[in-house]
Amino acid sequence: MHCAVAVGVCWLTLVSAGFSQTFFIQGRDALSLPARLAEAATSHAVTSPVKSPEANISNLPALLGPGSHRCFTSTAPPLSPFALESATAQEPPRLMRFSLSLFADDKTRQKSDDNPGNNLFQPLPDHTLDNDPQLQNTERRRPSGFDWNSALQQSTIFLGIQHAFRLATEKGSRADLKGPFFKDYFTTLTKLRGWDDGDPFLVNYIGHPMMGSVTGFIQIQNDPRGIKEEVSFKKPYWMSRLKATAFSFAYSTQFELGLVSEASLGNVGIRPYDGRKHPMAYVDIVVTPIVGTGWLVGEDLLDRYLIQALEKKISNRVTFVLFRSFLNPTRSFANILRGKTPWYRDNRK
Questions:
Q1: Is residue 210 within 8 Å of residue 323, measured between CB atoms?
Q2: Interatomic CA distance for residues 268 and 184, integer angstroms
Q3: How far apart are CA 242 and CA 296, in angstroms?
Q4: What is the DSSP track for 232-244?
């Protein structure tokens, strides 16, 4: 009586699309039930179409023999009788794919492996790391958009290095650190005029473009989309480099005219010196981001078509590192600013 009630409850669970299909099976020997179950499913249940769910359940005791009771759970998703009958008519072998790997002995498992067409032993999904807090925190820390926090930190470090070098090598800038800060700062801004600031070619058209390229790479390496792009004629690449140009322009303008700039720290341009009539000119503000982006694209070209080709031929680690570092100098410096080795690449080892 109790057994019949249990079977009825299980059938109602199946029909109502519950979370699992539970079948109560009887066998003479509980210890030998797994082997008989695997043998019966392999030899009969999979190879013969089942006309209805009721017939499928009622056949199990006949296949396994009367005796002690057992139950197990199918890994297949719950189906209504009508969907189950339709699925059986189309693909009979899939109806009885249960978690037999939990019950079958080694011989039965080997027999199934030897015949892939009747392989019922499907590996169960591993969910042991689904709720791992450490992995979840890692995913949570990974930025989905532009990482402003990291970009500002790297830009600040670069700005500090530039000003430290400038004040260490420019006697006039150190002398003009004295005096009222804001008064001298605003006076310096009014002196901005003309194109030529009197600096040599090496400073204006080599040094400043390299500065623009470094800040462009700072933007790229903090952009999860731009960092994946390699030089090409495709729109995503040029859009990412256009963003780098805008970031470089903002940094350059701040370096020349901002509150922490040449105009505020040392008041460069407040008065002529060393024969320079207008030490505060537009050349640096324009050349740094524009020519700097050209320098950046040039390094992208070298990295893709020269450095990567050399990497395939060079086995010496030292030579490999030197090529990467010195043929992409501004990328190497940007790598250092984010705590990476100069030869680091995001798209390969």
A1: no
A2: 10
A3: 11
A4: SSSHHHHHHHHHH
Residue 26 backbone dihedrals phi, psi, to 5 degrees: -110, 145
Q: In this structure, what token pair is assigned to residue 264? A: 């505020």
Q: How far apart are the first and last CA of the chain?
A: 68
SS3 98: strand
Question: C-alpha distances in angstroms, 310 versus 88, 300, 319?
Answer: 58, 15, 10
Structure-token pair, residue 286: 């324009």
Q: What is the DSSP letter of 269?
A: T
Query: 208 is written with which tokens?
Result: 């400043």
pLDDT 10s digits, 76-108:
455 444 444 444 444 444 444 444 444 445 555
Q: What is the pLDDT of residue 201?
A: 94
Structure tokens at 213: 């390229």
Which residues partner with 276 through β-bridges?
A: 273
Element holding 323 (H helix, E strand): helix 317-327
CA distance 35 to 53: 23
Distance CA 219, CA 215 (A): 6
